[in-house]
Amino acid sequence: MSSGKPLLVVLGATGTQGGSVLAHFLSLSSSPYALRGVTRSPTSSKAAALAARGVEMVAGDFDDPTSLDTAFKGASAIYSVTDYWNPMADPSQHQKAAAAGQSIGLFIGEYETQQNKNIIDAPAGVDGLERFVFSSLPDTNKLSGGKYTHIFQFDSKGKAEEYGRVTYPKLWEKTSVFYAPFYLENYFGPLGALFRPKLNKSTGSLTLAIAEPLASTPLPWFTAAGDTGELVHALLQVAPGKKLIGIRELLSPRRLAELFAEALKKDIEFVDSNPGPNSGNPGLSKGLLDLVGWCVEFGYDGAKVDKNIVTPENLGVPVALGSVKEWFERQEWEQVLQSD
Ligand SMILES: NC(=O)c1ccc[n+]([C@@H]2O[C@H](COP(=O)([O-])OP(=O)(O)OC[C@H]3O[C@@H](n4cnc5c(N)ncnc54)[C@H](OP(=O)(O)O)[C@@H]3O)[C@@H](O)[C@H]2O)c1
Known about the structure:
Elements: E1 7-10, H1 16-27, E2 34-39, H2 45-52, E3 56-59, H3 65-71, E4 77-80, H4 85-88, H5 91-100, H6 104-121, E5 131-136, H7 140-143, H8 152-167, H9 169-172, E6 175-179, E7 182-183, E8 198-199, E9 206-210, E10 219-222, H10 224-237, E11 243-245, E12 249-251, H11 253-264, E13 268-272, H12 282-298, E14 309-310, H13 324-330, H14 334-339
Parallel strand pairs: 1-2, 1-4, 2-3, 4-5, 5-6, 6-11, 7-10, 9-13, 11-14
Antiparallel strand pairs: 8-9, 10-12
Residues 12-18, 39-41, 60-63, 81-86, 153, 180, 182-183, 186, 224 line the site of NADP nicotinamide-adenine-dinucleotide phosphate.
């Protein structure tokens, strides 16, 4: 690069995690890296906005290995993240899953694993690559000995991580793994509806209807848009080989809701919603119930059986993430509470 700085290539540049990585380095008075973002649509408005801030935006598609070879040329460091959820909403993927006789969850999981293999294969051949940061999650099926079989969005990434470690030991010497916790941003969306208290419009107080064991299961939380960049920068500053869970706080949905109520200065009451989360979609419900069981037994990150997991305070460089309550205080909740 003409700046003379080493080049950081960021996948998912227009998305939440990758966007956070770029926003973090753009916010520094002097970024240690020249920045390149990868997107399927370099002319989109998000890509153009990043280009206007000095990011070199290039075309690349996880389904097209040749495009990744080109996108990674000259990289000193790569941040890799793939997208399980948007293909789930794509009707053509549902048709393909039906034609393959697979559940949509498993089908998209296998698709995401293949995308990650394409990504891993490409940097294995990059001359001069010093660091690879791979956004992953644990292979819950394998680690639980087949007890939890429906957490496809975790296993898809964990399987690819294992592929990289076994297939490319030299690349894996330069690799650190990043586990994203539950996004606090989920509190705004449909998944958040499971955790988010509802506003009683006549009394102004909050109620959360939630069942055990979900209500009291400790879950790790962070803001994906706000924290990913700082955490990835920290990983790039320490020796590779780390597996970082990027946690702000470990909180049960019940405690999370209490903090939400404190931030909004509202009263809250809890109602037992037994028989538990039931979306009417058996696949999703099984996945959610497996996820709760997994978190109770193994921890979200599998840290009860994987002793390689580190938290930000044990990384060896200062990481200053704010509190969950602060994040709640900074958001605008009126519209989402009124629309429930
Ligand atoms: N929600 C949670 O609580 C949570 C927790 C932990 C982990 N996660 C994981 O986070 C991942 C999603 O990350 P995110 O939130 O950053 O996603 P996001 O905001 O939805 O963005 C997706 C990004 O991926 C890019 N992308 C998608 N398909 C692509 C392809 N075929 N080729 C190239 N680029 C592609 C998109 O770029 P363009 O459209 O510009 O090409 C976009 O930048 C999921 O896999 C999920 O499992 C989520």
